[in-house]
Amino acid sequence: MNKTVAALALTTLALTGCGEETKKQQLIVGTNATFPPFEYVGGESGTEILGFDIDIAKQIAADAGKELVIKDMKFDSLIVALNAGKIDMVAAGMTITPERQQNADFSKPYYEATQYVITQQGVSFSSSEQLKGKKIAVQLGTTGDTIAQELTSDVASFNSGFEAVMELSNGKVDAVLFDAAPAKNLIAGKPQLQGALLEFNPEFYGFAVAKGNSEMLAQINATLDKMQADGSYNALLTKHIK
Ligand code: ARG
Predict the structure, then answer these.
(1) Which of 1, 28, 69, 208 has minimal Cβ neighbours within 10 Å of its Cβ?
(2) Res 1: pLDDT
């Protein structure tokens, strides 16, 4: 930051004051930045939170005239944080499910995903049926976790897909169940691992807000509509995913 910018920032701070006043101007978004290309830690400093969801969140904040504040937390505490009023919105590649809809409201679906099975090179499963009773590693609280629980009583859950993949690399589990795009990202450059799309259902990601926060929801949906219409949504897909 150069001096002029710093001085300007100070003046703005002095003018707006701290506490509640400033808080109103922020959009606090919760994420779990272990899910590339949707959200991950990186950039020049190595500490920036980047990704597809983050770029959309930036646009939502800009359209709402608010400053974006990202809070990185465990995936399974995002909806809790939402309901505790600690965050205004979840942007975490979160699949819209009926269970989650009991505790949060979701935006329009903005991305279609499905589960991917990662195994050691040479070990392959051609249907979910074959995964029954196997030892499966997942990220805690994800849809992969729920699906794995239905297939086996031997589920090892971790705070990130990265750790689940480590467990597989170490030969401790038979497979990892994780969303396809992040799974492909996690195994890139690891020739000892392979992945497959089986017959798992499509899942749709949505941004979550606290139940009843229709104003925030309308803002999110309006930004999504605008980005889809003006091509910026597709540009982000190309930039991050395809
Ligand atoms: N789509 C899956 C789910 O909703 C996985 C999301 C994991 N997201 C993350 N940021 N780690 O459960």
Answers:
(1) 1
(2) 46
What is the layout of strands, in order, in the sheet containing 26-31? 67-72, 26-31, 89-90, 208-209, 105-106
State which of 70, 76, 114, 142 you would mutate to test the pocket of ligand 1, scoring each by most atoms of that ligand within 8 A of its C-beta: 142
Measured in Å, residue 95 CA sits from the centre of ligand 1 at 7
Domains along the sequence of the chain with CATH: 20-111+204-240 (3.40.190.10), 115-201 (3.40.190.10)
Contact 187, 169 (CB under 8 A): no
Q: Is the CB of 88 under 6 A from ligand 1?
A: no
156-168 tens-digit pLDDT: 999 999 999 999 9
- Interatomic CA distance for residues 136 and 156, integer angstroms: 6
* Three-state SS at 107: coil
pTM above 0.85, yes or no: yes
- Report the alpha-carbon angle 92-50-200, nearest 5: 40
d(Cα 145, Cα 113) in Å, to the nearest integer? 15
| pLDDT tens per residue across span 113-127 | 999 999 999 999 999
Nearest ligand 1 atom to the CA of 34 is 11
